[in-house]
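User: These chains co-purify. Model them together.
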Amino acid sequence: DIHMTQSPSSLSASVGDRVSITCRASEKISTFLVWYQQKPGKAPNLLIYGASSLQGGAPSRFSASRSGTEFTLTINSLQPEDFATYYCQQSYRIPYTFGQGTRLEI
Amino acid sequence: QVQLVQSGAEVMKPGASMQVSCKASGYMFHTYYIHWVRQAPGQGPEWMGRFNPNGGATTYAQKFQGRLTVTGDTSSRTVYMDLSSLTPEDTAVYYCARGELLPLLDFWGQGTLITVSS
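Assistant: Joint model of the two components:
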């Protein structure tokens, strides 16, 4: 299975900050990488697909990039509603594995 | 609007089988796959498998081969996920989600908590 490693596992920030979350794949996955946001008690919400394409309806302060097998999600000017847990998922090979998550806290 | 409505929470005994249903509405049912994802308490999500309503083809993660079965009823726009030989490690929230062949999961059900306990 492809192993996805996220860092950091948790992150404290303030409203207005710019933060970045990293996800590293254990092998090449091209741009088959998806980012989700999850709030407590809710289903994940699709933010980014194809490593860097913003899902329709997702705020433009979210952006993402890829460098080899390392992927980065960046949130510019954090808003109160952005405090959540973020997961990456590879969609390159079955089983489509997720990272362990990054909890973004105030 | 697109909606996926799942069946309610259940408590199961070890060794039993469970079924979760997922009723879709608000879009052309045949044109999207339904994926199943579970999330154990405090853990990241785990992809289990997918169902193609257009023909009924299924694909499962190797981990669940032999005890996971996903079926669908196109007349009622409902997909069913059956998991057998339950153990406490199967305690999780189970989600259905709409996607394509690849898991770009844009709409999710509300989740169904399955607790496996003696």
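Chain B touches chain A at residues 37, 43-47, 59, 61-63, 95, 97, 102-106, 108-111 (CB under 8 Å).
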